[in-house]
Specification:
3 domains, alpha/beta, Cobalt-precorrin-4 Transmethylase, domain 1, flat
Length: about 325
Amino acid sequence: MSQDIHPSAEILLAQPRGFCAGVDRAITIVNQALEQFGAPIYVRHEIVHNKYVVDDLRSRGAIFVDDLAMVPAGATLVFSAHGVPPKVKAEAQARGFRVFDATCPLVTKVHVEVAKMYRDGHYIVMIGHKGHPEVEGTMGQVKDRISLVQTVDDVASLDLPPSMPIAYVTQTTLSIDETADIVAALTKKFPHISQPKKQDICYATQNRQDAVKLMAPQVEVVIVVGSPNSSNSNRLWELSEKLGVKAYMVDHPSQLQQEWFKGIKRVGLTAGASAPEILAQSIIEKIREFGPRAVRSLDGVIEHTIFQLPKGLNPNSTSRIKQ
């Protein structure tokens, strides 16, 4: 036993953590397509932003592409959980693919909002991260009259027609704290701006952030299980740091460094919405190798949301990635 490890050290687990209903649905769609139709199954973009999940699906015949030109005629195609613009759906239909749409229903809700705002004559402002597939999919729902803002400075730079009604929407994987200043700047500059009917930030994103807020004051370091390209995982890491607790994000046990845990009595662990529990457990076991550590789950929200699968898939099949 290392002298640097506190003898009563323990790991506190955030609740909830890991897969949300939208991610679970998306992965299940690819799994079931593989089972029903056989490999290969083509997926536009990574189905979710997690290396473990993508590598697992790739090993069983999923092929991830960024361009539909890479998909052969007659193939089975899955749209990722982040959503796609209508022009991509039209191209897939024109080329005769068997298509399953794994877009998260909460992202679809934003798409519907954007389309209605546009029909109603609004200029739309989207709060989000440039280049993120969800942002590209949402902004692609309309042909014009839409702008992306990432910061308060971006809001100051907006020059919109004074006579045109304005509305805003938000990328679902951002935090309420992260968007609050931008929303405030928008409402100050455009007092009559229309807001979404419901907060666009999804329930799972908020629940995981609330769990970190509860956990962080009780620990000395936080481990976030998630991949670097996962927006919601990055938000969990940022939130912990903002709360004054050192945080590290990892998506494989080998990335853990023993020095992170020297003299630490309590380690907190959470996982982004695209990180499977089997990966989180492997990382917990690796941390325990650094010294004797009890594992304790904290109280938190128990999520029961389930999203229906698209028609044409066998409802009796199950995902092979453990939750």
